[in-house]
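User: C-alpha cells for this one?
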Amino acid sequence: MTQSPNNSQPLDAPRPTIPLPRGPVPQAPPERERRSIEIKIDGESVAVAEGSTILDAAKKLGIDTPTLCFLESLSPVNVCRVCVVELEGARTLVPACSRKVEPNMSIRTDSERVRLSRRLVLEFLASSVDLSTAPAVHAYMDRYDAHPERFGSARATVAQPVIIDNELYVRDYSKCVLCYKCVEACGVDAQNTFAIAVAGRGFSAHIATEFDVPLPDSACVYCGNCIGVCPTGALMFKVEYDMRQAGTWNESRQTQTDTICPYCGVGCDLTVHQQEGQIVGVTSPVDHSVTHGNLCIKGRFGWQFVQIQPVDPDGK
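Assistant:
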C-alpha cells in the first residue's frame, strides 16, 4: 500500500500492476408501462397502448392505410395528407400517421369522404410531378380510381433538368412531391448533417442545399440516407439512373441478398440488389435495430470494388 508523503497514513491509490475491478454493466431503464386505450375503427374495437397513433391501431387490425410522407424511423410531418381518416366529432379529416389515439374514438378509414380526399390528393400530385418511378403511388391511384389527366397534361414541376453533379446519385426534382423525408433523414432523425432543406414558399417551395450551392460544395457527406427514404425516385443511385437511361433497368430480373457491411465493427445490415451478377444498389432494412435503414457512405456506395475486373498478368 502506498504511503503518504509524511509516511503517517497509507493512501488507497491503485497500483498500475493490479487491474481495477469492472463496474456494473450499464442497463437501459425498463420501459414505462403504458395503459391500454380502446377505440373503434370501421366498427371494430381495438386496444392499443397509450401514445400510439391511429395508423398503429389500423395496422393492428390489418387495415392498409396509404402513406407517402410517413416512415417508421422518421418524425411524422403531416404534409402528404394521403393517410387522412374520418374521426367522429371532428370537423376535418385527421392524419392517421400522427394523430394519437384517445379513449372512445370512432374512426372510419374507407368512407366516401375519405376516399374522395385521397383520390383528389393523388390526382393533384400526379398532375404536377412525374411519378413514373413511384409504383406504390400508381397502386394507390388504381385503388382510389384517381384520374390525374383531368387536370391537364402540362406538369409545371417537370420542366426542370436532372441534376448530376457527382458520381454517386442524381437529383431529379421533377419527381419530388415535397414529402420532407429526405430533409428529416438528413436532419435530426438520422444524419444530423442538415445539408438540405425546403427553400421557398408556396408554389416556389423546393428541396435545396444551403444557399443553393452544388452538392459537392454543400455539407453533404454522401451517406445516401435521403435516397433510402425517397418514395418517388427523385433521389436515385446514379447506377440505376444510367441503366434506366440505357433501357437496361429491370427489377423483375433483380435479386436481393442480405449481408453485413464489411467496413467496420458496427454490424450494419445490408440488402444488396443485383441484376445479372452486377450490384445495382444497396439498402438497409428500416426495422433493423442498428441501422434503422440508415447507412454511411461506405455502406451505401462502397461496393464498386466488387465489380472491378481482375488484371490478367499475361495481358489477355
